[in-house]
Amino acid sequence: MKYKFLFLFLTTCLAVKAQQITCSPKDKAAVENKLVEIDGMYDGNFGETMVSVGKSFMKTPYVAKTLEIGNTETLVVNLHGLDCTTFVENVLDLSKLLRQKDLSFDAFVKNLEVIRYKDGELDGYASRLHYFSEWIANNAEKGLLKDITGEIGGTEITKDINFMSTHRDLYPFLADDINYSKIKASENYLNNQAICVLAQDEITKNEHLIQSGDIIALATSINGLDVTHTGIATREKDGRIHLLHASTGSMEVEVSKLPLADYLKGIKSNTGIMVARPL
Question: What is the pTM of this model?
Protein backbone atom coordinates (compact mmCIF):
# COMPACT_ATOMS: atom_id res chain seq x y z
CA MET A 1 0.00 0.00 0.00
CA LYS A 2 2.90 2.33 0.89
CA TYR A 3 4.55 1.76 -2.51
CA LYS A 4 1.25 2.27 -4.32
CA PHE A 5 0.81 5.61 -2.56
CA LEU A 6 4.38 6.62 -3.46
CA PHE A 7 3.79 5.68 -7.11
CA LEU A 8 0.59 7.73 -7.23
CA PHE A 9 2.35 10.67 -5.56
CA LEU A 10 5.23 10.65 -8.05
CA THR A 11 2.85 10.22 -10.99
CA THR A 12 0.81 13.20 -9.83
CA CYS A 13 3.97 15.34 -9.46
CA LEU A 14 5.10 14.42 -12.97
CA ALA A 15 1.66 15.22 -14.37
CA VAL A 16 1.63 18.63 -12.67
CA LYS A 17 5.12 19.36 -14.00
CA ALA A 18 4.08 18.32 -17.50
CA GLN A 19 1.11 20.70 -17.37
CA GLN A 20 3.54 23.57 -16.73
CA ILE A 21 5.32 23.03 -20.05
CA THR A 22 4.01 23.93 -23.50
CA CYS A 23 6.06 21.94 -26.01
CA SER A 24 4.72 20.16 -29.08
CA PRO A 25 6.48 17.09 -30.52
CA LYS A 26 7.70 19.38 -33.32
CA ASP A 27 9.15 21.83 -30.80
CA LYS A 28 10.86 19.07 -28.84
CA ALA A 29 12.36 17.72 -32.07
CA ALA A 30 13.64 21.21 -32.91
CA VAL A 31 15.45 21.39 -29.56
CA GLU A 32 16.93 17.93 -29.98
CA ASN A 33 18.09 18.78 -33.52
CA LYS A 34 19.65 22.02 -32.26
CA LEU A 35 21.50 20.11 -29.53
CA VAL A 36 23.02 17.88 -32.22
CA GLU A 37 23.85 20.92 -34.38
CA ILE A 38 25.75 22.79 -31.67
CA ASP A 39 27.60 19.80 -30.23
CA GLY A 40 31.31 20.67 -30.17
CA MET A 41 30.88 24.46 -30.36
CA TYR A 42 32.26 25.10 -26.87
CA ASP A 43 36.02 25.71 -26.94
CA GLY A 44 36.52 27.18 -23.49
CA ASN A 45 35.51 30.74 -24.39
CA PHE A 46 31.93 31.21 -23.23
CA GLY A 47 31.42 34.54 -25.00
CA GLU A 48 32.48 33.17 -28.36
CA THR A 49 30.28 30.14 -27.72
CA MET A 50 27.30 32.48 -27.20
CA VAL A 51 28.01 34.06 -30.59
CA SER A 52 28.46 30.72 -32.34
CA VAL A 53 25.23 29.34 -30.89
CA GLY A 54 23.44 32.62 -31.65
CA LYS A 55 24.58 32.58 -35.27
CA SER A 56 23.24 29.04 -35.64
CA PHE A 57 19.79 30.69 -35.45
CA MET A 58 20.45 33.08 -38.36
CA LYS A 59 17.34 33.55 -40.53
CA THR A 60 15.05 32.12 -37.81
CA PRO A 61 11.81 34.16 -38.02
CA TYR A 62 11.07 36.91 -35.53
CA VAL A 63 7.72 36.09 -33.88
CA ALA A 64 6.24 38.25 -31.13
CA LYS A 65 4.33 37.04 -28.07
CA THR A 66 5.29 33.37 -28.37
CA LEU A 67 5.02 33.07 -24.56
CA GLU A 68 1.46 34.42 -24.35
CA ILE A 69 -0.29 31.06 -24.75
CA GLY A 70 -3.48 29.80 -23.11
CA ASN A 71 -4.92 31.00 -19.82
CA THR A 72 -2.18 29.76 -17.49
CA GLU A 73 1.52 30.57 -17.49
CA THR A 74 3.57 27.65 -18.78
CA LEU A 75 7.19 27.15 -19.76
CA VAL A 76 6.97 27.62 -23.51
CA VAL A 77 9.55 25.75 -25.59
CA ASN A 78 9.75 27.16 -29.11
CA LEU A 79 12.80 27.49 -31.37
CA HIS A 80 10.79 27.96 -34.58
CA GLY A 81 9.99 31.62 -33.90
CA LEU A 82 11.88 33.91 -31.53
CA ASP A 83 11.47 37.41 -30.17
CA CYS A 84 14.49 39.36 -28.93
CA THR A 85 14.22 38.08 -25.36
CA THR A 86 13.51 34.42 -26.13
CA PHE A 87 16.43 34.49 -28.57
CA VAL A 88 18.81 35.60 -25.82
CA GLU A 89 17.30 33.15 -23.31
CA ASN A 90 17.64 30.17 -25.62
CA VAL A 91 21.19 31.06 -26.67
CA LEU A 92 22.25 31.43 -23.03
CA ASP A 93 20.54 28.14 -22.16
CA LEU A 94 22.17 26.19 -25.00
CA SER A 95 25.60 27.71 -24.32
CA LYS A 96 25.33 26.68 -20.66
CA LEU A 97 24.48 23.13 -21.72
CA LEU A 98 27.63 23.00 -23.85
CA ARG A 99 29.75 24.09 -20.89
CA GLN A 100 27.94 21.65 -18.59
CA LYS A 101 28.45 18.87 -21.14
CA ASP A 102 24.81 17.87 -20.80
CA LEU A 103 23.10 18.14 -24.18
CA SER A 104 19.80 16.65 -23.07
CA PHE A 105 16.27 17.95 -23.54
CA ASP A 106 15.57 17.70 -19.81
CA ALA A 107 18.60 19.86 -18.99
CA PHE A 108 17.52 22.37 -21.63
CA VAL A 109 14.06 22.69 -20.06
CA LYS A 110 15.49 23.00 -16.54
CA ASN A 111 17.92 25.74 -17.58
CA LEU A 112 15.21 27.64 -19.46
CA GLU A 113 13.00 27.80 -16.37
CA VAL A 114 15.92 29.03 -14.27
CA ILE A 115 16.74 31.79 -16.77
CA ARG A 116 13.19 32.96 -17.55
CA TYR A 117 11.61 33.14 -14.09
CA LYS A 118 12.22 35.01 -10.84
CA ASP A 119 14.57 33.04 -8.63
CA GLY A 120 14.49 30.26 -11.23
CA GLU A 121 10.98 28.99 -10.51
CA LEU A 122 7.81 29.19 -12.58
CA ASP A 123 5.05 30.34 -10.24
CA GLY A 124 2.42 31.96 -12.43
CA TYR A 125 2.47 34.81 -14.93
CA ALA A 126 4.00 37.38 -12.59
CA SER A 127 6.99 35.13 -11.89
CA ARG A 128 8.22 35.63 -15.44
CA LEU A 129 10.92 38.30 -15.72
CA HIS A 130 8.94 40.67 -17.94
CA TYR A 131 11.09 43.80 -17.59
CA PHE A 132 14.58 43.21 -18.93
CA SER A 133 16.38 45.27 -16.29
CA GLU A 134 14.89 42.87 -13.75
CA TRP A 135 15.83 39.94 -16.00
CA ILE A 136 19.45 41.10 -15.78
CA ALA A 137 19.35 41.78 -12.04
CA ASN A 138 17.66 38.49 -11.12
CA ASN A 139 19.93 36.39 -13.32
CA ALA A 140 22.90 38.18 -11.77
CA GLU A 141 21.62 37.12 -8.34
CA LYS A 142 21.50 33.53 -9.64
CA GLY A 143 25.17 33.82 -10.63
CA LEU A 144 24.45 33.41 -14.34
CA LEU A 145 25.76 36.82 -15.41
CA LYS A 146 27.14 40.13 -14.21
CA ASP A 147 25.86 43.61 -15.00
CA ILE A 148 29.07 45.31 -16.17
CA THR A 149 27.45 48.55 -17.38
CA GLY A 150 28.95 50.59 -14.54
CA GLU A 151 32.41 49.17 -15.21
CA ILE A 152 32.40 50.37 -18.82
CA GLY A 153 31.26 53.95 -18.23
CA GLY A 154 27.59 53.64 -17.38
CA THR A 155 25.81 55.81 -14.84
CA GLU A 156 22.86 55.06 -12.57
CA ILE A 157 19.41 56.36 -13.41
CA THR A 158 15.97 56.01 -11.87
CA LYS A 159 12.76 55.81 -13.84
CA ASP A 160 9.12 54.98 -13.21
CA ILE A 161 8.50 51.47 -14.57
CA ASN A 162 4.78 50.92 -15.16
CA PHE A 163 4.23 50.20 -18.85
CA MET A 164 2.48 46.87 -18.32
CA SER A 165 0.02 48.11 -15.70
CA THR A 166 -0.72 51.30 -17.65
CA HIS A 167 -1.24 49.34 -20.87
CA ARG A 168 -3.22 46.48 -19.35
CA ASP A 169 -5.18 45.86 -22.55
CA LEU A 170 -2.00 44.84 -24.39
CA TYR A 171 -1.41 41.88 -22.06
CA PRO A 172 -4.19 39.23 -22.07
CA PHE A 173 -2.97 37.68 -18.81
CA LEU A 174 -3.52 41.00 -17.04
CA ALA A 175 -7.29 40.64 -17.47
CA ASP A 176 -6.92 38.53 -14.33
CA ASP A 177 -6.94 40.87 -11.32
CA ILE A 178 -4.52 38.71 -9.35
CA ASN A 179 -1.95 38.79 -12.17
CA TYR A 180 -2.47 42.52 -12.49
CA SER A 181 -1.90 43.19 -8.79
CA LYS A 182 1.26 41.06 -8.78
CA ILE A 183 2.66 42.89 -11.81
CA LYS A 184 1.90 46.20 -10.10
CA ALA A 185 3.82 44.98 -7.05
CA SER A 186 6.79 44.03 -9.27
CA GLU A 187 6.71 47.47 -10.87
CA ASN A 188 6.62 49.16 -7.47
CA TYR A 189 9.71 47.18 -6.49
CA LEU A 190 11.52 48.15 -9.69
CA ASN A 191 10.70 51.82 -9.17
CA ASN A 192 12.88 51.76 -6.06
CA GLN A 193 15.84 50.23 -7.91
CA ALA A 194 18.36 52.29 -9.87
CA ILE A 195 19.58 50.87 -13.17
CA CYS A 196 22.90 51.58 -14.82
CA VAL A 197 22.92 52.78 -18.44
CA LEU A 198 25.81 53.54 -20.79
CA ALA A 199 24.61 56.64 -22.63
CA GLN A 200 24.31 56.39 -26.40
CA ASP A 201 26.97 59.05 -27.02
CA GLU A 202 29.40 57.18 -24.74
CA ILE A 203 29.21 53.82 -26.51
CA THR A 204 31.81 54.38 -29.26
CA LYS A 205 34.65 55.33 -26.90
CA ASN A 206 33.83 52.44 -24.53
CA GLU A 207 33.13 49.85 -27.22
CA HIS A 208 36.53 48.20 -26.71
CA LEU A 209 35.37 47.14 -23.24
CA ILE A 210 32.44 45.14 -24.66
CA GLN A 211 33.19 41.52 -25.51
CA SER A 212 31.62 39.09 -27.96
CA GLY A 213 28.89 37.21 -26.12
CA ASP A 214 27.91 40.09 -23.84
CA ILE A 215 24.16 40.60 -23.58
CA ILE A 216 23.09 44.05 -24.78
CA ALA A 217 19.83 45.68 -23.67
CA LEU A 218 18.60 48.86 -25.35
CA ALA A 219 17.46 51.47 -22.82
CA THR A 220 14.62 53.75 -23.88
CA SER A 221 13.01 57.13 -23.30
CA ILE A 222 9.53 55.61 -23.70
CA ASN A 223 7.45 56.30 -20.60
CA GLY A 224 7.12 53.35 -18.26
CA LEU A 225 9.68 51.15 -20.01
CA ASP A 226 13.26 50.31 -19.13
CA VAL A 227 14.31 48.37 -22.23
CA THR A 228 12.81 47.94 -25.69
CA HIS A 229 15.13 45.40 -27.29
CA THR A 230 17.97 43.03 -26.55
CA GLY A 231 20.59 40.97 -28.34
CA ILE A 232 24.14 39.65 -28.16
CA ALA A 233 27.36 41.56 -28.85
CA THR A 234 29.57 40.20 -31.61
CA ARG A 235 32.87 41.66 -32.76
CA GLU A 236 32.86 41.30 -36.51
CA LYS A 237 35.58 41.41 -39.19
CA ASP A 238 35.59 45.22 -39.18
CA GLY A 239 36.79 45.08 -35.56
CA ARG A 240 33.59 46.74 -34.34
CA ILE A 241 30.88 45.46 -32.01
CA HIS A 242 27.66 44.60 -33.86
CA LEU A 243 24.33 43.32 -32.52
CA LEU A 244 23.30 39.69 -33.08
CA HIS A 245 19.56 39.73 -32.48
CA ALA A 246 16.05 38.72 -33.47
CA SER A 247 15.32 41.85 -35.47
CA THR A 248 11.94 43.53 -35.87
CA GLY A 249 13.31 45.20 -39.00
CA SER A 250 14.20 42.15 -41.06
CA MET A 251 11.82 39.95 -38.99
CA GLU A 252 14.54 37.34 -38.50
CA VAL A 253 17.69 36.63 -36.54
CA GLU A 254 20.57 38.61 -38.02
CA VAL A 255 23.75 40.55 -37.28
CA SER A 256 23.25 44.29 -37.58
CA LYS A 257 24.85 45.66 -40.73
CA LEU A 258 26.01 48.75 -38.84
CA PRO A 259 28.18 48.64 -35.72
CA LEU A 260 26.12 48.82 -32.52
CA ALA A 261 26.88 52.49 -31.82
CA ASP A 262 25.77 53.52 -35.31
CA TYR A 263 22.79 51.17 -35.33
CA LEU A 264 21.44 52.77 -32.16
CA LYS A 265 21.58 56.25 -33.66
CA GLY A 266 18.75 55.19 -35.96
CA ILE A 267 16.45 54.45 -33.02
CA LYS A 268 14.85 57.71 -31.94
CA SER A 269 13.81 56.57 -28.46
CA ASN A 270 17.14 54.92 -27.57
CA THR A 271 19.03 56.46 -24.68
CA GLY A 272 21.87 53.95 -24.34
CA ILE A 273 22.52 50.34 -23.36
CA MET A 274 22.83 47.99 -20.44
CA VAL A 275 25.55 45.33 -20.76
CA ALA A 276 25.52 41.98 -18.96
CA ARG A 277 28.32 39.44 -19.21
CA PRO A 278 27.45 35.74 -18.83
CA LEU A 279 29.58 34.02 -16.20
Answer: 0.92
